[in-house]
Amino acid sequence: MTKNNPTTVNLNYFWKKKTILSFAAILFIVAIHNSATNQYQITEDLFTNTTWFIRNLFAYGIGSIAVPFFFFISGLTFFRNYKPKLYKQKMISRINTLLIPYLIWNLVGIIFAILYTFTPLSNIISGREQIVLNPENIFQGIFFYKYNYHFWFMYSLIVFVILTPFFHILLSKKWLGITFIPIFLCLPLISDSFLHISLSSIVFYYLGCFIGRYYLEIFTTKKSLLFSVLSGITALLLLIIKMLSIYHIITLPTVISQLLLIILLLAIWFFADIFITKRKAPKFTDEFFPVYTIHPYIIAVIVKIIILIAPHTSYMLLINEVFSTILTMIITTACVYCWHKVLPKTYSIFFGRPIHHQNNNTNIV
């Protein structure tokens, strides 16, 4: 059986790589949530088609692994040292890092929806949902992310953490753990969601749990240049297949599409070894979760402002799509970085992060 006892040096490398790739994945999530293409009523031409190609490539092509990556890496880090006696400790940790920020920002989402509905705020913001004030909507907003649409990921992750004892039973034997991978892979054939959980996300989290339990060492060591290059070639070929399916040139069955995402995710993980150097990861890359949390509010403003001050032409659509995504990343990262420096205690509460944290923390529970 593969050894699963990576050294501290390997874990340091793993945390650095995880942090950098997590920040990169947030860029693609911002691209997914960019609503610029829905705000322009223009005919097709070169600029419009180019805009849609860029959006499809970054949001639905390579960007399609962004959320699966976070499910996968969350399962891997949770089960890298999991034992039943640690369940209470890990649950307390996740209450601070997941549940409390989830509830706080859902309340912020409700307040934002109220302002959007009953004030002129809608004049400078695009793509937000108005609210009808009643107990049901407030309840849905607080506990089921009704006004924080991107928090479906956090909701699912919270549920998966609660189900840890169940996953632990499935992973008690390696052969049993392997058996359930194709079972979870086929769940989207039954339904898209169940109890607000995307069923397609379970296989990514569970696969991370399985690897964290049995093959962690493979993911914490830097691979050879040849292996990384071959992984990059594999990722490129899979990305081409993905783009062909987006443009309906080929049709991929649901299970095959899920399997393609898994292989693409793994290929990009190993390909990234080429770019991970001995230098420390930039400090701002550790802000990936805060950036994920607040970016929809910022990009909604940026997109709308560009629409208001610039002509409604196809070339401006292209500029808006690209510029608003990049500007959102810059502004959001700067905001949370300053928040961390100026108001560290509130930062810690709102984002579930320690006041003083570093990129490569091998002691994370």
Please tell me about this protein's structure.
With 365 residues, the chain is mainly alpha-helical. It folds into 2 domains: 8-222 and 276-351, no CATH class; 228-237 and 248-275, no CATH class. Helices cover 67% and strands 1% of the residues. It has helices at 8-32, 46-61, 66-79, 87-118, 135-143, 152-162, 164-170, 174-185, 202-214, 216-220, 225-246, 254-271, 288-309, 314-342, 344-351, and strands at 193-194, 197-198. A two-stranded antiparallel sheet has the order 1-2. Helix 4 packs across helix 5 and helix 8 (174-185) packs antiparallel against helix 9. The relative contact order is 0.17. The model is unreliable at 358-365 (pLDDT under 50).
**Biggest sheet overview:** 2 strands, antiparallel
Oligomer: single chain
Counting structural domains, the number is 2
Q: What's the total helix number?
A: 15
Give the ordered list of helices and strands.
HHHHHHHHEEHHHHHHH
Helix content: 55-70%
Beta strand count = 2
Main attributes?
mainly alpha, 2 strands, 365 residues, 15 helices, 2 domains, globular
Strands, helices and their partners?
Elements: H1 8-32, H2 46-61, H3 66-79, H4 87-118, H5 135-143, H6 152-162, H7 164-170, H8 174-185, E1 193-194, E2 197-198, H9 202-214, H10 216-220, H11 225-246, H12 254-271, H13 288-309, H14 314-342, H15 344-351
Antiparallel strand pairs: 1-2
Helix pairs in contact: 1-2, 1-3, 1-13, 1-14, 2-11, 2-14, 3-9, 4-5, 4-6, 8-9, 11-12, 13-14, 14-15
